[in-house]
User: Fold this.
Amino acid sequence: MKYMLMMHAPRSTSGDWSVASWAPDDLKAHIGFMKRLAKDLSESGELVAAEGLAAAEQARIVRAGRNGAPEVTDGPFAESKEFLAGFWIVDCESTQRAYEIAARASAAPGQGGVPLNLRIEVREVMSAPPVEV
Assistant:
């Protein structure tokens, strides 16, 4: 089964995640952790995709307007205390395994090596119903 693991990061007072202000060694440790996680999941055959996302202030909401032209607005939630910072799509044997991967990702090191314990939302990726021919 495929699962999407979505990492939610807290906003700082400047509106973005504060990783840009971390000491270089802390940021290096965090990125190294994420690379090792991706490598381990890739080697186990569970990693489908993983990406970090641009800063929340770059997010936009798009809807189809007149004649299908895109209507673009700021978004998604300017008042939110958290934002979607990145995601993994994993293909694993059980929901429990997806939870184990999410817990590992949640414990990524932050400043001073202290685990961040970030919220990781876990959702099964839906499959299309079978089509009868």
About this structure: The CA atoms of residues 67 and 73 lie 17 Å apart.
